[in-house]
Amino acid sequence: MKPSSAARxxxxxxxxxxxLIVAIWPRDDASAPDSFAEYRDRVGTTAPADAPDVDLGPExxxxxxxxxxxxxxxxxxxxxxxxxxxxxxxxxxxxLDLGRALAGRPxxxxxxxxxxxxxxxxxxxxxxxxxxxxxxxxxxxxxxDPREGSALARLADYGVRLPGVQxxxxxxxxxxxxxxxxxxxxxxxxxxxxxxxxAQPFRSVDEIADAVxxxxxxxx
Length: 220
Fold this sequence. Notes:
Layout: H1 5-24, H2 28-31, H3 36-46, H4 57-63, E1 86-89, E2 95-97, H5 98-102, E3 107-112, H6 117-133, E4 138-143, H7 148-158, E5 164-166, H8 171-176, E6 184-188, E7 194-198, H9 205-216
Parallel strand pairs: 3-4, 4-5
Antiparallel strand pairs: 1-2, 1-5, 3-6, 6-7
């Protein structure tokens, strides 16, 4: 017995629906980022920021970060690309004029995010280097993801107490012309001018010291 006209139309409609589902079904290879840079930008722009009224006091206390730097006593007004740029100090949540804070000393600025695995491997070396360099070189981390609380939790996990700032809008990277990868270390001379942009993770304390000596002329 032949199927009725209504049955044939129902079967055809079902085939069309199935085809549409197959066409729009998400595929792993299509949804995955094509590069680490794409992953960085996707996470950094889609992750929700901490609510402005969230109290991060407990997270700041647990992290125990060093105070943000202050300009050297004899430092001239900064003239580099960070002059007048405002960020938030991770240690206390206070606003910070980054160019003025770094004026007068050679600086290693490390751009990172809480989800970045190479950053997690590199940050302890930066901590050790900062202890070795003392007052000769300022080492400052710049967290680029909107989730400030996640940054504090990660630093506590890593045992890294370096001074750091929160920059979820990536204004520091934009001002310095840093590439869209993480981690990135930017070396600044005492005037605040860029001496080098190093888009690579450091693998040892000596590697950091060599970069500072070569690019900034400071032996530590």
